[in-house]
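Check these lines:
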Amino acid sequence: MGDAPGGEVVLVVSVESGQVALGCDAASVRRARLVAASFARACELDGLTEDLELVTSELVSNAIRHADASITLALMCADQRVRVEVSDDGRGVPTLLAPEASSDSGRGLVIVAGVADSWGSRPANGQGKTVWAELVPPI
């Protein structure tokens, strides 16, 4: 974790750099939740810890499902706002679905959209995509 220009606190957890090994497995979701909780505490945003953990775990779960091999988690904090970005090398564009009640999947982005103040996606450098969400603590 370090300070970026503009006073942002930035933590990058990258599979490629080996800073924290996040594989394409369920254990990586737990690790990402722990990193998100620690980051929220470091930014003194304890009121966002549970929501940040939930959003992070949903985005990482989606990346694991759709990535070919590479996943990057980045957390940023500035102006009492937290941004989580999960990049993967998978193809496709994230789509907010309305899953059927009997469906076993398809609810991740519904949860993210319901919890986060804003979310979206953009093409990642090279190939793949970055899905992001921003959370603002309650007043």
Strands lie at 2-3, 9-14, 71-78, 81-88, 118-123, 129-135.
